[in-house]
Amino acid sequence: MKAFHSDLEILLKNQKPASEPMSLDIQIDNYEKLNQNRVNEQTMNRLIETFLTELKQVLTSRAEIFLIGSLFIDVLDQKHVMLVLPFLYPETLETLWLSNAYKNHDDRTLEMNVIVQIEHWKNIEEFYVEGLVVNASVRNFAHISRLKTKIMTVTAGDLIFLKELRYSFYQTYKTTKYSCNKHSIHKF
């Protein structure tokens, strides 16, 4: 990981600033191998956090902020997202795709209370979540034109809000309610 960090730092320091937003994809490609080696959740968390902390150092070492249009990232929790997201240019980030890094535990809860408060969130047009159940109000997603996620709690007031929003903004939307071990999940 240190060699990767050093190589990435050299590449980015010598790179000219991008005039167009690019895509940043941070995913665990060899998950099956990690799973065979019985990497537990705590170890996976430490690996991700170490990598993202080093990436954050690289991102903050540049004079110019990165123009990223799309961020695809495997995470276990909100702090992983926040190690990278604040260091990207907020006006160019349009797509955020979060995926559960620990694929053995599908539908783990992802808190969103910090993410939805930062400037980047206001500019997101597309938001996708895989293998995670989002713990946030439906109202936090009202500005997003393309959304695919599972939301932990939807109130009657949220459903009325969505119905009113549909008439003014969305042409179509689909909701599905299903239960898992601990709670009901609402899929949008």
UniProtKB/TrEMBL annotation:
Residues annotated as domain DUF38: 50-187
Superkingdom as given in the UniProt entry: Eukaryota
> Which Pfam families does the record match to this protein?
FTH
Q: Which InterPro entries match?
A: DUF38/FTH_CAE_spp, FB224
Instruction: Give an example GO biological process.
Output: innate immune response
Report the protein name in the record: DUF38 domain-containing protein
List the lineage, top down: Eukaryota, Metazoa, Ecdysozoa, Nematoda, Chromadorea
